[in-house]
Amino acid sequence: MKLKLLFASIVIGLIIALSWFSNLPMSPNTYTEINAPKTVLSSAKPAAKIQTIETKTPVLTVNSRLKTTPISPIKTHVKVDIPPISPTKIETTFTGDLDDHEAYLAYENEQEIALKTAYIQAAKDKVKLLNSWLVKGINQQLDASQIEFAKEKIKALEQLTQSLEEELKKAS
Questions:
Q1: CA gap 143, 19 in Å, rounded
Q2: Which residue in 41, 47, 65, 110 has the most C-beta neighbors within 10 A?
Q3: Which residues share a beta bridge with 70?
Q4: Given its phi and psi angles, is residue 66 left (phi above 0), alpha (psi -120 to 50 degrees) or beta?
Q5: In this structure, how many other beta carbons lie within 10 angstroms of the beta carbon of residue 76?
Q6: What pTM was estimated for this model as a whole?
Q7: Would residue 141 be called left, alpha or beta, if left means φ above 0 and alpha means ψ between -120 and 50 degrees?
Q8: Is pLDDT of 21 > 80?
């Protein structure tokens, strides 16, 4: 019994060790020639957003006699994905006395109103987008259950927007 347990633990240890070392990065091949030709794969038609970046200084390579030789600049295709820059929103913080409970409640109420107003505007924009998608779905003859599900979602979003608008009217 103890022998089986010992054998099982050794086998498990070997499996763990092999899986650990098989995931390590491989060391560079030391038998490759230094002046071996390098293959570069390039596409014939790069995508529209891919730009060419050219290095300003020539790249120096080391040959087998440890002398440096200049090579022409390297052109690399890089996909640039830059998000649109929007002005930062200034977050308001409570600047009054924290012991003044009524002033802090008024501040919280202002923030709640601002949040509901922003949600209402975002929901209206989303409803417009969803309605345009719904029209596209109807034109492409999607399944009736999917179209009905989308209509229910749009209706629920409109109802929530309406209830928030009513809450804001009652609060003011």
A1: 48
A2: 110
A3: 60
A4: left
A5: 13
A6: 0.46
A7: left
A8: no
Give the end-to-end CA distance of the chain in Å, rounded to a whole number. Answer: 80
* Higher local confidence (pLDDT), 25 or 83: 83
Alpha helices in the chain (DSSP H): 2-22, 101-139, 144-171
pLDDT tens digits for range 28-79: 555 545 555 555 555 545 444 455 555 455 555 555 555 555 555 566 667 7
Give the C-alpha separation, 13 to 3, whole Å.
Answer: 15
- Cβ burial of 48 (10 Å; 0-12, 13-18, 19+) is exposed
User: What are the Cα distances from residue 51, in Å, to 23, 40, 48, 73, 131?
Assistant: 34, 17, 8, 16, 36
Report the pLDDT value the prediction gives residue 63, as an integer from 0 to 100. Answer: 52
pLDDT at site 15: 87
Classify each residue of 147-165 as buried b or exposed e, where b means 16 or more C-beta atoms within 10 Å of its C-beta.
Answer: eeebeeebeeeeeebeebe
Q: Which residue has the tokens 């209402």?
A: 120
Q: 4 is written with which tokens?
A: 């089986």
Contact 119, 164 (CB under 8 A): yes
Distance CA 72, CA 33 (A): 21
Question: Rounded CA gap, 131 and 147, in Å?
Answer: 11
